[in-house]
Design goal:
419 residues, alpha/beta, nine-stranded mixed sheet, seven-stranded parallel sheet, 15 helices, globular, binds NADPH dihydro-nicotinamide-adenine-dinucleotide phosphate
Amino acid sequence: MGKALIIGCGGVASVAIHKCCQNSEVFEEICIASRTKSKCDALKEKLEGTTKTKITTEQVDADKFDEVCALIKKVQPDVVMNIALPYQDLTIMDACLACGVNYMDTANYEPENLDDPAWKAAYEKRCKEEGFSAYFDYSWQWAYMDKFKEAGLTALLGSGFDPGVTQVFCAYAQKHLFDEIHTIDILDCNGGDHGYPFATNFNPEINLREVSAPGSYWENGHWVEIPAMSIHREYDFDGVGHKDMYLLHHEEIESLAKNIPGVKRIRFFMTFGQSYLTHMKCLENVGMLSTTPIEYEGREIVPIQFLKALLPDPASLGPRTVGKTNIGCIFTGVKDGKEKTAYIYNICDHQECYREVGSQAISYTTGVPAMIGGMMLMTGTWAKPGVYTAEEFDPDSYMDALNKWGLPWNVVENPVLVD
Ligand code: NDP
């Protein structure tokens, strides 16, 4: 079928690359390009001989537009899969536009430097206008809508699990299960245990920024913001059992509020153990989550980046993590004039993922949808010039692909609701 340029070679990209190599009919050729080329070479060496997909590697600093453009011109891909960090989203989108190639990523843009005055001014304006204060939002990437339309190119934003699959679940519920969706609760449960007192399951900097921020939810046409971790519920998850979960702000709420007509409330909950929360609070209190550089012995260091260097590499958690994840959406609404509730979710086992691709389930549940998103664009199944999130496309092929490529889903009617 074609060639993908995959930028990034961390925990999530590694799974996506394994899955592309299982799907050689679509991904005949991939180029893995990242900041540290040795990681790309090591993965190529591991996979070559096990796959028909032809693999090449390149070094790139994806913060540099000229470098990404030169790379795209050299590789000539059909799609660029950005599985680096959200910091690189805009540079890579600019390069895709300049070179005429479709784009996808797994997380929406946020700046690396939160002290940048131009970004800060736009951020403060958005906080006032919209009413939520997360550092990430879709506005930066939605601003590319007309440029992608004019170029006849598709940008698919956020094709991981959440965002990504959760929005495909919403599109599926809208198409097949409900005439009107009234409420959506997205529940992200990680019942895995890696045995460390504290570690993050994906990039620590991105993860800790997300969970230490104020929570927020969408209700009756506007955002309601709450102090971090101040709304707590308990839920009995299929395959996992009882877990404490906390309301967080999450990026897909922003797009779902626009794209699910008539929705009255959207919330996102994630499970956390007490040890994780205590460590995080302590690190926050002593300033270790700060992104503002400090002088230390004549050198400038960014506290959260120093912390990242101390914490276990998320990619190393695979062999030690046992247990399951359960991620999905609970819907309430109306079908054929009657009130209805439904729950769509996937259960994923950490050890099974490790056996298959050498990674734990958090990377797996993100990397598989990243491959599927790339496949949707490569095959033209999802082709619509402009910049879109996953719920804006027909969900059926994506839902089939989830079953086929390792993330089977269940639909349950009349689930226990979250109060
Ligand atoms: P990692 O930190 O493990 O990997 C990031 C990769 O990007 C590394 O290979 C890194 O290179 C590379 N990279 C970073 N900066 C640059 C740059 N300037 N130029 C080129 N390459 C660069 O992160 P994860 O794999 O955990 O996460 C990847 C993405 O997935 C993130 O955007 C994250 O937010 C998103 N995500 C989405 C989820 C979802 O469900 N939608 C869930 C989890 C994560 P190096 O090796 O040199 O550091």
